[in-house]
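I have a small job for you when you get a moment. Would you make up a two-line entry for one protein for me to read? No commentary is needed, just the two lines. Write everything out right here, beneath this request.
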Amino acid sequence: MRYLKPRLTAVDPTLLGLAREVVRPGAVVWDVGANVGLFSFAAASVVGPAGRVVALEPDSWLVGLLRRSAALNGHLAPVEVLPVALSDSVGVGRFHCGGEAVLARQPAIICEVDDVNAARVAELLDRYGYALYDGERPAEARHALDRAPATLLALPQHVSDRRPWTNVG
């Protein structure tokens, strides 16, 4: 991450913008499938030292990279790296909800959705009272969708009804 830092905002401006928009100071943030930690460390800068970030990543090489980056974190929130995947089996599988207790608590969700799963993801999140938005669109141009877009911003309906968009939650 240190290598990317000078031009980090150009790496994925949509993801970084959503982190600034949705994550709040002092929050606890879970980054499931953290990869190289772009979202993890963007969230750590927003939540600050009073917050905490938990990065879950099953790839051992990426876990090492994440842990080295976390050690250099400085004044940001602590980033705890867990070398795990969230599944009941090893291998490639279909998404299913083993996290119903989490969804019932209605955290804000930012995720990538494959078009093949878009209708099922929308149905699942609708059951838990979420409104779905296209995270690629500017905040002022967003409207609720019936189908999950590729870059999904899912907010509890009671939160999504409020404006301004920044720092919802």
Notes: The beta strands are 28-32, 52-56, 79-82, 109-112, 130-134, 151-156. The chain has two domains: 1-86, 99-169. Residues 163-169 have pLDDT under 50 and may be disordered.
